[in-house]
Amino acid sequence: MSNTVDVLAIAAHRDDVEQTCGGTLLVQKALGWKTGILDLTRGEAGTRGTAVERAAEADAAAKILGVSHREALDLPDGNVQNTLENRLKVAAVLRRLRPRVVILPYWQGRHPDHYTTATLGYEACFAAGLTKLDLPAENGAPHRPYKILYASLYADVRPTFVVDITPHVETRLQALLAYRSQYGEQSAGAGLFVPEEDIRERMFSTARHYGLLAGVRYAEPFVQREVSLAVDLMQLPVQSL
Ligand SMILES: [Zn+2]
Description:
This protein is an alpha/beta fold. The chain has eight helices and seven strands; from the N terminus they run E-H-H-E-H-E-H-E-H-E-E-H-H-H-E. The protein has helices at 16-20, 22-30, 51-65, 84-97, 112-128, 169-177, 180-183, 196-214; strands spanning 7-11, 35-41, 69-75, 101-105, 147-151, 161-164, 219-223. Strand 4, helix 5 (112-128) and strand 5 (147-151) form a beta-alpha-beta unit. The longest helix is centred in the C-terminal third of the chain and has 19 residues, at 196-214. The radius of gyration is 18 Å and the shape is globular. Zinc ion binds at residues 12-13, 16, 111, 114.
């Protein structure tokens, strides 16, 4: 079972995880959990960089984030669809990696690939637990993640909770900057892309905003559909006033 992970982040595009929950993966890794990333597409439709370049960048970012596993499926970039075929592809990965926690993108947003990944990922988590799913046995026994969380940084919604990433904020930035083809100073696609100092300022100010909501320095936002469960009111974090 050495190739399983505890926490799996699923995203449409390479660098989505770095943009939305890279700090949280660093936190989980530091706590001793095994983390992984599943990218659904390979970035062939991007304005800058080839799929091969983006694969090398994704590998470099994965090393910086300390994930024990990263892979990309072959769904078409810019046309992620919630089909049975795609649900089976994701379910096969879930059965093999057997995560307890799955992080998905938030279910509303500007980019159709992002919100489609939320639904596709959720339904794949459900399907992966079905005994009579049309998947070969070598993909592993049925498995359903215990917890599904939505990384909501791209969406203008109030998070259910935030994760304090303060000790890891610089490393998180380095993981993002591994995508040189996207963020370097280049003329192709100028206007769409911003230079490195802007990336830094944007990332830090966003993380600071979410940190302030919970009285910490830097944080990443998440939404969960379930209510939270309190065991002891005396231990509830985040000061009210
Ligand atoms: Zn994206």
